[in-house]
Amino acid sequence: MKVYEQSQVRNIVLVGAPGSGKTTLTESMLFEGGIIKRRGSVEEKSTVSDFHEIEQERGNSIYSTCMHAEWHDCKINILDTPGLDDFVGEVLSSIRVATTCVLVLNGQQGVEVGTEIVWNRVSHFNKPTVIVLNQMDHPKANFDSALETVKARFGSKAVTLQYPLNPGEKFDTIVDVLKMVMYRFPNTGGKPQKLPIPDSEQQRVQKLRAEVIEKAAENDEKLMEKYFENGALDEADVMQGLRIGFIKGDIYPVFALSSKSNMGSGRLMGFLGEVAPSSLDIPPEQTVDGQMVVCDPKAPLTIFVYKTLVEPYLGKVNFFKVCSGELKVGMEIVNATTGDTEKINQILIMDGKTRNVVDRMAAGDIGALVKLKNTLTNHTLHAKECDQIIAPIDFPESKIQLAIVAENKNDDEKVVAGLRELHEEDPTFKLEYSKELKQMIVSGQGELHLDVGRWRLQHLYGVKTTYVRPRIPYRETIQKEANSMYRHKKQSGGAGQFGEVHIKVLPYHEGMPKPEGYSIRKEEVIDLAWGGKLVFYNAIVGGVIDARYVPSVLKGILEKMEEGPITGSYARDVCVVLHDGKMHSVDSNDISFKIAGSMAFKDAFLQANPLLLEPIYELEVMVPEDLVGDVMADLQGRRSSILGIDSVNNYQVIKAKTPLAELYKYSTSLKSITQGRAGFSCKFLEYTTLPGDVQKKLAQEYSSTKVN
Ligand SMILES: Nc1nc2c(ncn2[C@@H]2O[C@H](COP(=O)(O)OP(=O)(O)O)[C@@H](O)[C@H]2O)c(=O)[nH]1
Ligand SMILES: [Mg+2]
Which of 72, 350, 365, 542 is the most exposed place for a label (fewest CB within 10 A)? Predict the structure, then answer.
């Protein structure tokens, strides 16, 4: 395969709402680039991009896939990404290595909530962006109204370079404002006939052309002067101004096409080849200390792993971008994170599942490596003489969590090992054994995301698992003061045990005064690992308890707080005054005082009007106007309080406070209420009081399982 120099390489990432047609557009571009001889389709499960079994099973993209097409003298690397926010990790890793972003919209609605969700994720990367209004052949295609949504969202940045003459079922003609020709496609799509623009379209096209010229002129002072002097610009000037504005992010060229009938994808590729930047033209990658890594093939080699995937038959595949220098077969390079040296035996260019081999790859290009030792996403590998580390991709926090259980208990270890590997592949998929909940908790971006994890466990590691409702991390606290004493005494056979403590508990709140009536010797403020505080006062006088036993009392209290008296949940925000007690010259020891401390705490806590707190999450739901009512009704059924509704662009954002216990399977439920037209984010906000009846029920459940 030909090796391309850096100026010839374009890394194009396709992003957009699910179903807008990214995978289909990729297929058409690969066909136009001669990589495939026949166009596959999503329906026939035959696209190059959606080649994974699970993608074909579900009928949509789950992984981002890298492919390439050769177009004139360029290598266009195409990164097709999933539209569902469940797989945002895949989108973020691909956009990171891209030089141009293609935002694909469907030609019926234009900008949808799904578009907004993706755009919110990627817009801060500030990549030059092309907007594609796809599906112009769809019976309900409406270019004008779709374009209106684009103008409403992106303002004057959106510049129309093409429009369809006849959107809808009969679609076959595009008017090109930049080239000033009309393209008429044969039924099978592909290469169009170039025709003059008819008189009937002259008024519209001239108006659009003037907009393009004005926008192009805006980006260069010389062009601006020329424009004012002559009232026009020649073709080369327009292209130059357009390119400058596009690369700066001031111009989002708008194209109209049908990827399904392959009408217009060739022209889009032409634009990407001619106008879109290579890595040389956009800001270079940065190191963790903010240094620029110049995209120069003569500089020492630095490559950045943006994605890792375990493929059946191939094993672990690391996808990388060459940030500087040139990667060659035979090189020995160092993994900056692990310190391992890796010998490069093979450099791959992947087209979905098809592998091509090259023996070198220049800065700016992207490829894949297999059989590296411990190389993972976000790792930098570099030549021995250099030591820069590329700034990692910032992956988002988890949105939802579920507890995972192996169907066969003997598979527990395999499940953990498999999940660890899944996390290494996909940093947004996380696992943790929760000591508090006593469950293996898997967390990620949505139920579908977690379901894919479960599917992979079964298909790659051969273990069947199920997801169950995760327990809720309640907290326990008290509302009034209470006193207690506990004597731990044991006289059996040899050495006895004896310890007696008298304590007072009080609710803790920030800035409270020291309890009165005691001679306090020491105050210890403990920030509890699970949030909240324990303030412990040693107010022992006259040595009734030896100073060496006091830490044991505290230890006993802390142990009880770790498994709170009402439901076994963590206790928080309590003051304890240890003010009296007794010891025995022979039988007293640490363990006796620990037990006494723990039991005294439990008794006092239960008398102090104890209270169960539940975690509340702040929820933001993005939803189109017509679905606000349905989403609100559902939220109210989930004990939510609505904080407000804001209108943002052309959708609504509902803000609410919702108990975590009510968020179980929320992403699935929201998808079904809105047919996938809404999105949400949530984060922990606070702990608040649980309704009394729920507390009573939980306390009863706990005491029935507990014997002590
Ligand atoms: N009519 C029409 N349908 C399209 C077009 N592009 C994609 N589709 C259909 O839209 C659905 C989603 O397409 P897909 O490429 O998977 O969208 P993605 O989720 O953005 O990758 C599939 O049923 C496609 O056949 C198009 O240009 N015209
Ligand atoms: Mg897709």
Answer: 542
Identify any residues that bridge with 527 across adjacent strands, giving them in sequence order: 533
Is the CB of residue 567 below 6 angstroms from any atom belonging to ligand 1? no
Q: Ligand 1: does its nearest atom lie under 6 Å from the Cβ of 107?
A: no
Sorted by where each starts, the structural domains of the chain and their CATH numbers stand as 6-281 (3.40.50.300), 285-382 (2.40.30.10), 405-461 (3.30.70.870), 476-609 (3.30.230.10), 612-694 (3.30.70.240)
Q: Which long-range contacts (CB under 8 A, 24 or more apart) does 311-315 make?
A: 311/353, 312/460, 314/370, 315/370, 315/371
User: What is the residue whose two structure tokens read 């006939």?
Assistant: 193
The DSSP code sequence of 522-561 is EEEEEE-TTSSEEEEEE---TTSS-GGGHHHHHHHHHHHH
Cβ-based neighbours of 672, under 8 Å, separated by 6 or more: none
Strand partners, 263: 258
Q: Tell me if 36 sits within 8 A of 30, measured CB to CB.
A: yes
Q: Tell me the CA–centroid distance for residue 259 and ligand 2, in Å.
A: 12
Q: What is the pTM of this model?
A: 0.89
Which tens digits make up the pLDDT trace of 180-228? 999 999 999 999 999 999 999 999 999 999 999 999 998 888 888 888 8
Alpha-carbon distance of 263 to 138, in angstroms, equals: 12
Please name the residue that has the structure tokens 């504005």: 245
Question: Cβ(65) to ligand 1 under 6 A?
Answer: no
